[in-house]
Structures are given as C-alpha cells and as structure tokens.
Design goal:
There is one protein chain. About 30% of the residues lie in helices and about 20% in strands. The chain is of the alpha/beta class. It is globular and about 50 Å long. The protein has one domain: Aldolase class I (TIM Barrel, Alpha-Beta Barrel), CATH 3.20.20.70.
C-alpha cells in the first residue's frame, strides 16, 4: 500500500539523526523538521502523541554541528526541487510542492533545549545563504516553558525573519487538560505563559481534539477553550489564529481516534463563537 504523504511524519529520514522532511497539512507544503529532543523526553504525556516512549530515543543528546549540517543539506534538496524526485515524496500533489518552513518540533518539548536560541540564529543564517529568506521558522511548543524569561529570550531570535510560534492549548478546564495532555501541571500557568509570550511575539494557538475512548472533548470544553483564547488576547496577547485539528497519524495509545470532519467543524465553531481570533480547521486522516 502506498503511504499517504500527509500521514507520513516520521522523524527518521535516510541516515539523518536530527533533521527530517515532511509534507504538512497545516503548513500546506514542505516542512523541514528539527528534532531537538531525540532522547524522547517530554514534560507532557499526551495520549494522542505518535511517539512511542516505550522504545529508546535515537540519541541521548543533540550533536549541534551535525544537526546544522543535516538541515543545510535538506535545504539544498528543497531549494533545488530535487526532494520531489525522492520516492517518499513522489505522490505529493502539485499544490503542496512548495517549501513552507523549518520547524523545531521533535520527540519532546523543543523549548527545553538549551541551545534553541543558537539553533534558531544559525538556521536563519542558513536560510539567507540558500536564498530562502522568505521561508518561515516555526517553533512548536506545549507552552510549559513560556513563563520563563530565559526561554522567551531564546524565542526572540525568531524575530530576525519570518516566523511562527505554535503554542499548544488543548483544553479549557483543568480536568480535561490532565486527561488530554497527560499532566498534572496547572492549566492557568500554561495560559499565563502563552500570554507572556504573545505580548512579545506573535503566537498561533494549536488545539488538538482527538477522540478518547470514542468521545471528543464536547461543546462545553470547546467553549472553555474559546474563553481561554479570548482572555489571552484581552490581556494583551498577539494571537494570529487558532488551529483546530485532529489525529492524522497513528498514536501510541490505542484509545485515541479521529474526530469526523463535520464534528470538528462544529467544535471549531463553538470556539470561534467565544473569540474574534480566526479559527482554522484541519481535518484528520485515518492512519494506514
């Protein structure tokens, strides 16, 4: 069976250890990922995560120079268009054959990486060298570290070029937050961190809505998420949009499923009714 290119988000590509290419539905094109958490350590335990933490990570630490060399090589493939000749990407539809971004993601929480600021700065320099100044740099974060002045200082390196910060907000209430993100951290603290970051830099909220044991979050929870988003903006946060999405890749937890398109639209509509921040829906895909 041919793998659907939008469902294939493996963080392993050929012999590379830290950089990997994917075609992303939310990026609407090619995204080059940087895995700065190859040890698979994460301060969340989201049941919908596709990372299998029962097996060891690919490396215990990041080899900084090797990571930059790998992303440099992938930029060359993307800039030249040669990447579309590779078997893995041969079935990519024409509208998605565009280089959108370089994303700091990985098998854990990227903002825990102590050299994140250095890495963002070096990636910016590489983009300039390759003539890719318009390509965005994206940092995906679960927002647990955004209350830290030090972490926000690293993220300020993004402002040297086009960028996005995708901050996770999967819940509006503490009870559901603990269920969907597998943590006992305080949701209020997460929201405070997002607000602090969004006062300095533009932030996009990413809201994953899976089914857990066949049930989605429900309308009341969606409304609570919308209220949280509205509060962040009211408190001075610059929010570009809310990305509401559901599962598209096989999760490690068998309890997790995909919300149907029509229902996802309903839940996104509930969130939109509570805030004037634009809400964008991204439909799921059943994994092969």
């Amino acid at each position: 069976m041919r793998t659907n290119v939008l469902s294939e988000h493996s963080r392993q590509f050929e012999t590379l250890r830290f950089a990997y290419p994917v075609v992303s539905r939310r990026s609407r094109g090619l995204s080059l990922g940087l895995n700065v958490n190859p040890d698979k350590l994460c301060n969340f335990d989201c049941p919908y995560c596709q990372v299998d933490r029962t097996t060891p990570g690919s490396a215990k630490t990041v080899d900084f120079d090797a990571m930059l060399a790998e992303i440099d090589g992938l930029m060359s493939l993307a800039q030249s268009g040669e990447i579309w000749n590779l078997a893995r990407f041969a079935s990519t539809p024409a509208p998605l054959r565009r280089f959108n971004d370089i994303a700091f993601a990985g098998d854990g929480e990227p903002t825990t990486y102590l050299r994140l600021g250095d890495a963002i700065r070096e990636v910016h320099a590489l983009k300039q060298r390759h003539g890719l100044a318009d390509v965005k740099t994206i940092v995906l974060t679960n927002a647990t570290m955004l209350h830290s002045d030090v972490v926000r200082g690293r993220l300020r390196e993004l402002a040297a070029g086009p960028y996005e910060i995708w901050a996770k907000l999967d819940a509006g209430t503490q009870e559901y937050f603990e269920l969907v993100d597998g943590t006992t951290r305080k949701l209020d603290r997460i929201v405070e961190g997002i607000t602090a970051c969004a006062r300095e830099l533009d932030v996009t909220i990413q809201t994953m809505i899976p089914t857990i044991d066949g049930k989605d979050c429900g309308n009341a929870e969606a409304a609570a998420i919308g209220d949280r988003v509205a509060r962040i903006k009211r408190d001075g946060g610059s929010l570009l949009q809310v990305q509401v999405y559901t599962t598209a890749r096989r999760p490690a937890d068998a309890r997790i499923g995909m919300v149907a398109d029509e229902r996802l639209d309903e839940l996104a509509g509930v969130i939109q009714a509570r805030t004037d921040v634009p809400v964008q829906t991204y439909y799921g895909r059943m994994w092969e």
